Amino acid sequence: MSELFPSTRVQILLPLPFGGVLDYLADDEMHLRVGDFVTVPLPGRELQGVVWEISPENSTVPIEKLKRVIRKADLPPLPAQLQEFIEWVASYTVSPLGSVLKMALSVPRKFDKPKKKIFYRLSNQLPDKMTEVRKKVVDVAIADMPMAVKTWCEIAAVGEGVIRGMIKLGLLTPQEVSGEEAFIKPDTTLKRATLSAEQKHAADHIILQQRSGTYKAVLLEGVTGSGKTEVYFEAIAEALSEETAQVLVLVPEISLTAQWLDRFKERFGTEPVIWHSEMTPAARRRAWWATIRGEARVIVGARSALFLPLQNLKLVIVDEEHSQTFKQDEGVMYNGRDMAVVRAVQSHCPIILASATPSLETLINAQNGKYDWLYLGERHGPAELPEMSSLDLRIHKLKSGTWISDPLRAELSENYTRGEQSLLYLNRRGYAPLTLCRSCGHRMECPHCSAWLVEHNKFNRLECHHCGFHIRKPEVCPSCEKEDSLVACGPGVERVAEELQMLFPEARLAVMSSDEITSPKALKAMIVSIENHEVDFIVGTQIVTKGYHFPMLTLVGVIDADLGMSGADPRAAERTWQQLEQVAGRAGRAEHPGRVMFQTYQPGHPVLQALISGDRDQFLEQEAASREAQDLPPYGKMASLILSGPDKNNVIIICKTLAKCAPHHKDITVLGPVAAPLSYLRGNYRYRFLLKAKSHVSIQNEIRHWLNQMPRHRGVKIQIDIDPYSFY
Ligand code: ADP
Ligand code: ZN
To answer: Does domain 116-178 sit in CATH 1.10.10?
Structure first.
């Protein structure tokens, strides 16, 4: 057969969780190139993959044994830069190449030819006289670009009836298009903000970097409300002045960025292309196609947007770069912020890391000159930074079952009387974190995890926040069977809201937590009602720290500033500081001055001292010094190995085998195995190793070598987490 059809050996990477590529034969007539998307046979099925190499030199499989590539997809090839990036991520995270490719191909029906659709464009012949609403539609038309009815409605802000009416009259004419609807190009000529001197200096610096056409990382640090977004909008505009340039903006939680999207639209006349895992399959497909064809110009997304097939990446922005949500904690465990830097290096373009509370990693890179460092020290306009103080709960004792101390209550009351908004912050969902039997002491726990069940008032049930298990709150204790003996212990946001409502029965309350905000629409509705001052008090979890701008919000009360200060996590203090600084940053963002009060049992804690004195430098220096002394990141390297499986003995046996062949020399320390803090999760027993190494050690090579000595292990999963951020 191979004589009839001249063919070439190719290596195909498949999105499967095993190491490498597979060899196939491809008919020369296919003219395969590296990066082409192809369909190949596997035993019993067909699968789509990517041509990784042509005529590889290292193949040993005899040619008679090779199967043939079935077909090539009608798509531009996977960009070489993305191929390089996939290899880099796989190697850095010690993950199978196929698992990383899978992230890049998580798009439904990407290889099918899109169905033909009917769109509408403006007719060439329009009457001179037209109604006001119809004129509005004509005005928003973009040359003769055909658009879906829905898009017309959206950009002209008219009802569907208007558009349908115009179609009937022939003012809009149908046109069959194949493929997805194009995205509207951002318009860089619209009115822009007049930048302050400090903002302008920052923007100019970044633009100079952009023009040099090389990689450069820039830390854009600025106090909350200083206009970092305005500054990097200028950089986006600069990038867009090149015809085919693409810009990637990573944000911590895309579903929480409604206000950001509005501002983008105001500045560039259209929304950017959005990318995250909760989009509908159709929307994902449209965004992916637009990206690979180079039509998507500005893409804003969650960390997974790093794996989009960008053709001409010219600028990367990571907003709120300190955010932990950039770290993926399952599957391929990677840090989106760090990988974004790699993507920028490989694309030879600048990257902007923006934050009011930069991570220590980034700050140190800025301090030692690896990154450029821009600083915005003033809030925009008349707004001043809020005044912060701590409330010592050892002095202002809480009455049992209450969480708002007297001085905080007095402040809330005063603020309410003045007609200003207040926010109470507690990073705990639900009503109470623990339910306990008063009579026998039984604690309500999840049957699948070693975790307490959290009471949620909304559905009157107890929920596990790790696996989703839930039950109705029982009326008798499951252990001693006593009636009405189960009591809620500790506060969640719902309980604080209940207390507030009791204190201020007339006041209007909003609870901002992921239980209340179940869709971008619900979030938007809540934001609008806060902006319109239909709310007096907000009680929120960490969701409220996400960059919101509420002009009438002047008082922030932190219910439990000590929460999250301790624990095994070396970043606990840093993270608490970031969260509290961010939540404090919601206060007093417009003309009314803001105040922040931290309820605490440890007012002397360095984190609180740093917040109140505003001397964060000293705090961060201490943090840095203590990490350096212990060889912790960013000075040393760290990795976790997490072993899990349904059979506890099995897991322990594998742990022991691993422990015997653990890396052993002076520059690396292996701690464990120990039962994980969450020792039982979703029906699996969990054990952990922690590796600490000096910075010159390749921790990846150590792990590869280590695991290569392991015999096959069934029923036990080993997860590798390079530079872990979570330790449960
Ligand atoms: P940050 O991202 O640093 O917290 P933002 O970019 O959100 O700050 O800016 C805070 C507020 O100030 C926003 O409402 C923004 O529109 C406004 N703002 C910032 N800079 C300017 C400017 N130069 N002109 C007009 N408004 C500005
Ligand atoms: Zn559970």
So the answer is: yes
